[in-house]
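Section 4.2 – Deliverable D4.2 (structural model, holo form)

The reporting period included a commitment to supply a predicted holo structure for the target in complex with NAP. Inputs used:
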Amino acid sequence: MKPEIVLVGPIYAATMRQLESAYTVHRLWQASDPKALLSTLADRVDGSVAFPVTEGNVTAGNATPTPVTLPPVAVAVTSGGRGMRSDEMQALPGLKLITCFGVGVDSIDLAVAQKRGIAVTNTPDVLTECVADTTWMLILATIRKAVFNDAFVRSGKWLQGSAPLTDKVWGENMGIIGFGRIGKAIARRAEGFGMRIAYHGRAQQKDVAYPYYADVAALADWAKILVVACPGGKQTENIVDARVLEALGKEGYVFNISRGSTIDEQALVKALESGSIAGAGLDVFADEPRVPETLFRLDNVVLQLHVGSGTHHTRNAMGQLVLDNLAAWFAGKPLVTPVI
Ligand code: NAP
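Output (structure tokens):
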């Protein structure tokens, strides 16, 4: 019998296929009654598995249906966006591992998981470079108006004259909120563009020579390009608020590849509408896949659909880490990329 896992929400299709071949997968999001599914998986005295598993115990004609106790399902797989709610953890008292396809685990309550003795893994490092590429795609596309200019050409407007000139990217000041793996990969690319770099985090990093700003608004005031690359969750909720946007100012741009929760979205929409900041490039939103419709009408913003890590190469590597963590857990070995 294949080991059983709960798949909380859909992930990369190729990884789901690999999961299906190695495990019995219970798809929670497709269940007509998810609560009932979780309760069946938690309480595994299953009268429908009528006979002892060993064939030798059953002889034709006199077999008596015997309830078999299966172990409760102990492993869940989920995506960074979907995570796993505390009530879902509670509904699976035997849960021992949540494997997250994604590096951000803000949609899993780690304190609850820890209290319940549930290990959590994620997929760090393998996605860093592609997310940094996506950030740079947004920076160049927004500031050099790639999307606007593309529409300009396609609509035949070039025949009537040129599009407006744009701001420049190279040599500007870049402030990075969250100077971890992705923040540093964005900075490495910025070095190639001759930029000055400064960062904000909860504390100054010993091995980092770039200037540290303890105050996000002061960093925004200094920067022309402000990049948000910290984790989501309560601690960073609206870390970029109206005050920070005001400090960024009319010539400043903000880029978000972290989580929608890190920017006060209403304040951002207002700032983009009024021109109190120059522009924004956004990969993530507060209520995905819903995006404030006002943004659809604005030329000073470039919108992506949470595709920071969205290349075949990276998604395969993330899937492999999910599979490696599961294999390690089922083999009783140390987890490959534990968060807790
Ligand atoms: P990481 O290496 O853990 O870096 C996170 C950085 O954020 C650290 O330097 C940390 O520094 C800082 N930080 C943590 N809490 C903070 C707080 N309360 N205030 C300010 N800074 C804080 O993580 P990563 O691999 O770079 O990933 C960063 C995030 O990117 C993920 O959590 C995820 O949300 C997002 N992401 C998005 C996509 C996408 O598709 N758009 C893809 C992958 C990841 P200190 O500990 O010094 O504060």
